[in-house]
Every structure is written in structure tokens, then in C-alpha cells.
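#help-structures
NK: newbie question, is this the right format to request a structure? protein is Serine--glyoxylate aminotransferase
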Amino acid sequence: MLTLNKHPSGRHFLQIPGPTNVPDRVLRAIDQPTIDHRGPEFGELGLSVLAGIKQVFGTASPVVIYPASGTGAWEAALVNTLSPGDRVLMVETGHFASLWRKLAGRLGLEVDYLEGDWRHPVDAALIGARLAEDAQRRIKAVCVVHNETSTGVTSDIAAVRAAMDRAGHPALLMVDTISSLGSIDYRHDEWGVDVTVAGSQKGLMLPPGLSFNAVGPRALAAAETARLPRSYWDWREMLGPNAKGYFPYTPSTNLLYGLHEALAMLQAEGLPRVYARHERHARATRLAVAGWGLELLSLDPAAHSPALTAVLVPEGHSADALRRVILDRFDMSLGQGLGKLTDRIFRIGHLGHFNDLTLCGTLAGVEMGLAAAGVPHRPGGLQAAMEYLTRTPEGEAG
């Protein structure tokens, strides 16, 4: 018989980089009775969330909301703008960039793949150079991941757009913000992004089940001539009903209740403070890692993620064994290594509904786990983080 709760005392620490902890007030909102998704009350809800989510993306353009995971939003971005045989330029930053590439290939797109080492961000200059070589303009889209969840590396999207503009290339820019939206400063309009992809289960503080496409004017124009098959994902089917707060098929009504509450929380805190909070907790976490004498996976200090931190375990030791010890002894879940990083790293999520004490509890669990699992380290990482948090007031990054 499956035992779902081995630790009845206290609250489980869910410190993976998504799904993240769902605030109690969001859970209470989701728990409301389901209403008629064709009725006037739902129309008001739909208009509210469709307007509110634009602020988080930093856009005045439409945002389409699907009942789906982030993978669905990847597919929607591609099938609404491209045709069979089109070439897309994609950049390997980690496991999720690789999965997006695989999906593009399955759709019948030709993928020009810029390989990476999973420890550095997107090289905007390399993208610009590849586009400059494309004299026949065969590349129709550039797809990049803003914050690579598998590695803890964040890429500079404004630099990518600048490189594309210098190359004078008309390709669309598509960006995955699944683990950055609501956690890391993002500006769809200002950075000239054509399609932004996101999901509900990370910085938006919701359970999995909603995905998003923020759709700029150039992408909307491309949707009129794109020939990849689409039905469920068709933006055109969505945008008509969305104008009045409705959807062309049954939406995730109760998750939209939760989204309404989550947006209210983000607006009340203020997005600049939200982003500063994430950066402050990330810096404290990196100080803890340095205090333990362990190595960050991310090698570029300018690209360290504010949403999560990926940590290499010493050679000859198992990251998965460490994670099992921490789960069994302290009832805390940490993110595993994915793809070629399997068993080599553990990932500490510090995004979403999160505060200083939650972070300190998380880092205490890691430090105790390192000792319990016999992983070589120096004590004092938690102390270094606490000293930083104490001397650096909330709202500052130090």
C-alpha cells in the first residue's frame, strides 16, 4: 500500500524549483465552488486575470491562457507562427532547452542548434553571427530559455534582441520564462520579444495546470500565414472569446480563481520588490554554498539565477543519495539533476511564496543533510547566509 505521508508532524519543505509552495490564500481561492464558465460572473473573472497577467509579462499585447503545462505553451508558440520545414535557431542551455528542441523536431521543423555546456547563459553574439550568415533568411524564429530550471543559469534576453537587431534579421524571438515569470525581472514589450512562454507552477505560486503565451504584434501577423496544424492551441480561436473574458473551450475555472489571488499578491507586494526579494534570497543561498566549500553549477556570476541554485556534489558522491537522506531525515524535497546532470547536482528552489525563515530552514536542512550523508563540506554555510540576511534589509540585495 502506498504511504503518502510518512511525516505527520510539521509541514513538508517543498524546495524544488517548481512546482513551488502554494500560498494558503491561493489554495482557499481555488477551493471556491466552481461557477458557470459561460455566465457573467466568470466573464468578470476572465477579464480580470487576462488584464492582470499582462503586467507580470510587461506587455500591452494579448496573453493567451491554456489549461496545460508549460510544454503545451512551447507547442502553442511554434504551431501558431511557423510552417512545416521552417528553420528555427535554438540554444542549448540545459535540459529544458533540449526538450523544446526535441518538440520542435517532432513538429516537422528544422532545428539549427547552438550547443552549450549547461553552465553558461545564451551567447547573444553567437546568435547574431549565425543570423548574419543566414543570407536567405531561412531562420524564422530564435528560441531561448530565459531561466534554465535545470542549471540555475539566467540569460540576457535584451542582449539577444540587440544582437538580432544588429544582424538585421526578421526572425521572431521566442522566450521560455517558465521558471522566471513572477520571480525575475522580465519585459516582453521593452525587450522586443514576439512570443513569451510561461507556466503557473513556479513564480506565479499556483499548482501546475495553466500555461501562457504572451503574443506580440509580429507573432500575431505570423499566425495568419502559419501552416503547422493547430486546433486546441490556435490563438485565433482564443482571442475572440477572450475579449469578453471567456474561452472557446472549458477553462480551468478554479485555477483561474487561484491566478486572480496570486496576481493580487504580486501586485500588493509590487513586482520590483518581488524581484529584489528573489535576488536577495539567491545571494544568501550562494553564500551558503560557498561557506560549505561546494561548487555552483553556474560559472558566470552575472548569470546566476535568482530563482534557484544548482550545486555540484564532490566527485565520488551521489547527489541523489544526498537528496534521499534529506527527504527521509528532514522531510524536505530538493530538485534532482536532469539529463546529463543526473546524480551530479542538487537544486535548491528559492522562488515563489518564500521568506527569510523559509530559506534558513531550507539551508539548515541542506547543511544537516550534507553531514548525515557524509558529503565532504565545511560547516557554516547556514551561518553565512543568516549573517547576510540580517545585515541586508528586505527590499535590498546587498
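mod (FA): yep, format's fine, and the C-alpha cells are attached above. The radius of gyration is 21 Å.
NK: thank you!
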